[in-house]
């Protein structure tokens, strides 16, 4: 008799799911664009440090650490120089401009935020890279590109906003040329069941970051294989990126005006903007307890027989 297989635990779900998710994500990044850029610069994602380093002592500063994360994913995924790249969730273009600049790639970036796409195109023009990096307001699951278009599909910290991750892996497989590479860096959750306190922590993070749920790094690997990818490799970068939520690095300010200033900000931009200020302590606790993880994935679309 075959042993019983334990069912996979149900994921913790945030409030932003279903048909309204894309609208909620678009609004969040539209209203926080200047906050992220003013505080974090061109890279709206985690930084990467060597073991034992911290930004407060001997570690890299924000710009160097976030730039290194891009280079680490380029290395992990073996992104070829000069590749034709689709950047899914391109933000304001930081990683794409690295790919188009030092790496010589041609990049099409897509984001749900029209303000992000416009800012990324401004930055590409300022850098003299508009001929190799273009940015559009588009849903990553319906870009309209034909089959076998790209050498690389790049997704840096964007999968957490997708409600249908199997559809993403299938669409990435469709868009890649045979032999093409999928490169992913993503927030994730510890594999396995969470206790009630851990579930509540995850629920709060999802709420404030406008995300439907988290998948574990192991689940990302399973989804890639199910979509037809081969040569799937993953790396757990949780320890390397955890410093990103140290207060001295995250630079999420405690506004001098206190509650009154926060109320004014919510009144002018909408209450969703307050999630920007709540995220730091929650994410730090997530990494400190091992509930929140972070990983990279590389997968290859096989050549046709």
TrEMBL record:
Residues 175-184 are annotated as: SAM motif III. Residues 148-156 are annotated as: SAM motif II. PROSITE patterns: SAM_GTMT. Residues 75-302 form the Polyketide synthase-like methyltransferase domain. The keyword Glycoprotein does not apply. It comes from Kitasatospora phosalacinea. InterPro entries: Erg6_SMT_methyltransf, MeTfrase_dom, Methyltransf_11, PiNMT-like, SAM-dependent_MTases_sf. One of its GO terms (biological process) is methylation. Residues 1-12 have a biased composition (Pro residues). Residues 85-94 are annotated as: SAM motif I. The keyword Kinase does not apply. This is Methyltransferase domain-containing protein. CDD domains: AdoMet_MTases (cd02440).
């Amino acid at each position: 008799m075959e042993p019983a297989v334990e069912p996979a635990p149900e994921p913790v779900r945030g409030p932003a799911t279903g048909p309204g998710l894309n609208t909620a994500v678009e609004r969040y990044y539209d209203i926080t664009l200047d906050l992220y850029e003013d505080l974090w610069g061109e890279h709206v994602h985690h930084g990467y440090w060597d073991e034992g380093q911290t930004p407060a002592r001997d570690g890299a500063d924000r710009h160097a650490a976030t730039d290194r994360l891009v280079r680490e994913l380029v290395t992990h995924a073996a992104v070829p120089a000069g590749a034709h790249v689709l950047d899914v969730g391109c933000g304001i273009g930081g990683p794409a401009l690295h790919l188009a600049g030092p790496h010589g790639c041609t990049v099409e970036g897509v984001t749900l935020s029209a303000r992000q796409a416009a800012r990324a195109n401004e930055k590409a023009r300022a850098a003299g890279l508009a001929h190799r990096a273009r940015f559009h307001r588009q849903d990553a699951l319906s870009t309209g590109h034909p089959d076998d278009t790209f050498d690389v599909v790049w997704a840096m910290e964007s999968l957490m906003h997708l409600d249908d991750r199997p559809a993403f892996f299938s669409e990435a497989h469709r868009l890649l040329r045979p032999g093409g590479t999928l490169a992913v860096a993503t927030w994730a959750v510890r594999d396995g069941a969470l206790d009630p306190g851990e579930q509540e922590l995850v629920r709060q993070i999802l709420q404030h970051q406008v995300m439907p749920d988290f998948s574990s790094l192991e689940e990302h690997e399973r989804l890639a294989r199910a979509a037809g990818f081969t040569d799937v490799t993953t790396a757990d970068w949780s320890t390397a990126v955890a410093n990103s939520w140290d207060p001295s690095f995250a630079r999420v300010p405690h506004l001098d005006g206190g509650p009154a200033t926060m109320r004014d900000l919510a009144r002018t931009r909408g209450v969703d903007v307050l999630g920007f200020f709540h995220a730091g302590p929650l994410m730090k606790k997530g990494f400190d307890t091992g509930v929140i993880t972070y990983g990279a994935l590389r997968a290859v679309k096989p050549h046709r027989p």
